Amino acid sequence: MPKAKPKPSSTHRPENSVLASLLRELRLASGMTQAQAATALGLTQTGISDFETSDRGLELLVVRDLVRVYGADWMAFVEELERRLVAAPKPASALIKKPSDPVRKKPK
């Protein structure tokens, strides 16, 4: 039976951690603390922390607001996010050769 695909809103998708990491980097590059970012958006510091650790899902408009508060260009942010998503490392299981590969065939 094939594995079920994760729900699109799942905070456990690998893409979510890439997004969360980029937002954290952007906040740090802007020189803002989590508390300052939270105040600017009317959120709590814990909420910003939860976004950055992937413990809480991110809505598109909240991401856009965070990018704006950090003083970054939205389109440049989206382009960098896409670049990082495409460059995502392969899982170790993808490196294992299939039994049909000549290297793994048993000698006769």
TrEMBL record:
Entry-linked CDD domains: HTH_XRE
Annotated source species: Dyella flava
Protein name per its UniProtKB record: Helix-turn-helix domain-containing protein
PROSITE patterns tied to this protein: HTH_CROC1
Pfam family, one: HTH_31
Transmembrane segments: none
SUPFAM superfamilies documented for this protein: lambda repressor-like DNA-binding domains
Origin superkingdom: Bacteria
Limits of the HTH cro/C1-type domain: 23-77
